[in-house]
Specification:
The protein is of the alpha/beta class and 216 residues long. The protein is 44% helix and 16% strand. Bound molecules: pyridoxal-5'-phosphate.
């Protein structure tokens, strides 16, 4: 099974750069995957999963959560403000805090409900117009604004441009996190998670390398 292989590649990557074993969390990105594949990974004891759409997650995770103890669910895709309340109820961690309006909505809901998932701020390191995220030049101010709103920001997240060397983007994200005192780095996917671990990733988001190709 692929999960085991990916877990051992994560351990090897930690070891190679002298990082403690288990310091990187592997999030299995289960979006669009058939339930049988997700269930097989749950059966093997894995508990950290990620989805990119609230509605899709609402369709499958309440049932899995009822059947498997200790599931930790991560939202890694864009969050519309009108789905924020549903996201707060279902997800333990949100990796896609990407704009002031969403920060304000989350702060209001957190105040109202008395709880909030851990948050990663998404940074558009490639400054791609079609991609979500705060621009690198605006990141410091946005992080400060989120802290002023009392949001539990634990780190930064990025999705590097497909055609560029990911290491440059991972290094930039790590630099912004460090100068802002944020410990978490959500970076690295199926094709580049070992590079991300070498550059300090604390959370890697791996989909197809665990489950197989989506839509097949
Ligand atoms: C789909 C997705 C992943 C996983 O991608 P793979 O290439 O299948 O590993 C990681 N992060 C985000 C934000 C995604 O949407």
């Amino acid at each position: 099974m692929l999960l085991k292989e990916i877990l051992s590649r994560v351990s090897a990557a930690e070891c190679k750069v002298g990082r403690a074993e288990g310091s990187v969390k592997l999030i299995a990105i289960s979006k669009v995957q058939p339930n049988e594949r997700v269930e097989a990974v749950l059966e093997q004891g894995h508990r950290a999963f990620g989805e990119n759409r609230v509605q899709e997650a609402q369709g499958k995770w309440p049932d899995f959560k009822a059947r498997f103890e200790g599931v930790e669910l991560h939202l890694v895709g864009p969050l519309q403000t009108n789905k924020a309340r549903a996201a707060l109820e279902l997800f333990d961690v949100i990796h896609s805090l990407d704009r002031p309006k969403l920060a304000q909505t989350l702060a209001r809901l957190a105040h109202e409900t008395g709880s909030c998932p851990d948050l990663f701020i998404q940074v558009n390191t490639g400054e791609e117009p079609q991609k979500a995220g705060i621009l690198p030049a605006e990141a410091d101010a946005f992080i400060a604004d989120c802290c002023a709103l009392d949001l539990p920001v634990t780190g930064l997240m990025c999705i590097p441009p497909a055609e560029e060397e990911p290491a440059l983007h991972f290094a930039l994200l790590a630099k912004i996190a460090e100068r802002n005192g944020l410990p978490g780095l959500s970076m690295g996917m199926s094709g580049d998670f070992e590079t991300a671990i070498a550059l300090g990733a604390t959370h890697v988001r791996v989909g197809s390398a665990i489950f197989g190709q989506r839509g097949v």
